[in-house]
Design goal:
ten-stranded antiparallel beta sheet, two-stranded antiparallel ribbon, 5 helices
Length: 204
């Protein structure tokens, strides 16, 4: 049989597989994320408190997490893309068998896990001229899928790799008091060890 079709339809059926593959990895947006787990040499787990924008560590210790730093890390994870898909000469050990980093994000009734394996042997750190960001290529997989690909992971101080390596420190809330200054109506200052001193109260 001969079918007469538009050129656009004929071209769409002849697309190479590279153009049909999606390069997105983590698809859960920051506002939907409920938990973040990072496992490398240590295991770190955080959760967003119900009906609150605050984040809290579950492991390795129970402590407050920095909302800004945690959401920045989630944004950087969401920005990762598959660089190349590996169809020949895979690594001796797949990321799914022995991941260097196991990153899990849970959202609304769904969970996504990115498995980063060993660095690509032939890859050398590359630096983009505009942003001056150094990256190293890692083998990677999505849990539950067999596709093997590479990911360019930003490295260096204050980078995503630095955050993954030291998550329990980088994502911890550094402030002693965590409150919204616009919601403050009064401040009271007193000296518990000096009972005779009056209490100073400032009212908005």
């Amino acid at each position: 049989r001969i079918h007469v079709v538009s050129r656009a339809l004929a071209d769409s059926l002849a697309l190479p597989i590279d153009q049909l593959r999606a390069d997105s990895l983590i698809t859960i947006p920051v506002f939907e994320a409920r938990t973040l787990r990072i496992q490398s040499t240590t295991r770190v787990a955080l959760h967003r408190e119900p009906a609150s924008p605050r984040w809290t560590f579950d492991t390795p210790i129970v402590a407050r997490a920095s909302k800004d730093d945690t959401e920045r890390a989630l944004n950087e994870l969401g920005a990762l893309r598959a660089k190349t898909f590996v169809t020949d000469t895979p690594p001796a050990t797949l990321p799914s068998a022995a991941p260097t980093y196991r990153i899990t994000i849970e959202g609304n009734n769904r969970r996504e896990t990115l498995l980063l394996g060993t660095p690509v042997p032939t890859a050398t750190p590359t630096t983009t001229t505009a942003a001056k960001i150094t990256t190293i290529d890692y083998y990677a997989q999505i849990e539950g899928r067999t596709a093997l690909f590479t990911v360019a992971l930003p490295t260096g101080p204050q980078s995503l790799k630095d955050t993954l390596d030291q998550a329990q420190e980088r994502l911890r809330e550094k402030r002693v008091l965590d409150f919204d200054p616009t919601a403050v109506t009064a401040i009271s200052l007193r000296a518990p060890n000096a009972p005779g001193q009056p209490t100073l109260t400032l009212q908005r």
